[in-house]
Amino acid sequence: MGAGAVDPDRPADRRVGRSGRLRVGHAHPATRAASDRIAETVDLAQYAQDDGPCLTTLRTGEPVAVPDVAGAVVWPRFRDAAWQNGVRASLSVPLFAGSGETIAALNLYARDAVGISSSVPSAS
Q1: Does 123 map to a domain?
Q2: Separation CA 96–CA 94 (nearest Å)
Q3: How many domains does the chain divide into?
Q4: What average pLDDT does the chain have?
Q5: Residues 92-110, buried b or exposed e (16+ Cβ, 10 A)?
Q6: Cα(31)–Cα(114) distance, rounded to whole angstroms?
């Protein structure tokens, strides 16, 4: 997502960024694509702690919602990096191979704390 493509006055465009991580065949998760520096920074904080919503999604194969980053006390590096970079909510969604194995996670970051469907487990 290019910076020029986001209109901050439109509610649908009040997102920060997105990233995707790949796990298969790699000893350590890595961001394969990020829409901006903020998404990559928040990803790197999770790698440094070896935990966070994305890594939890990779390990469990379940989506993880963080509707309010301030409440993410179980992941202090993620919380602090997200907050310092203007991220207020996140959603990590597993991506599967044909075999059903979780091979990656798609992370969506938002500037506003958001309501997330009750069908998605919440970490906050």
Answers
A1: no
A2: 6
A3: 1
A4: 79
A5: bbbbeeeeeebbbbbbbbb
A6: 24
Contacts of 55 (CB under 8 A, 6+ apart): 29, 46, 47, 105
CATH number (domain holding residue 33): 3.30.450.40
**Token code pair at residue 102:** 């979780």
Expressed in percent and rounded to 5, the helix, strand and coil fractions of the chain are 30, 25, 40
pTM of the model: 0.74
Q: Which residues of 13-44 are buried (b: 16+ CB within 10 A; e: fewer)?
A: eebbbbbbbbbeeeeebebeebbbebbbbbbe
95 belongs to a structural domain: yes
| 46 within some domain | yes
pLDDT for res 117: 57
User: Would you say residue 112 has pLDDT above 80?
Assistant: yes
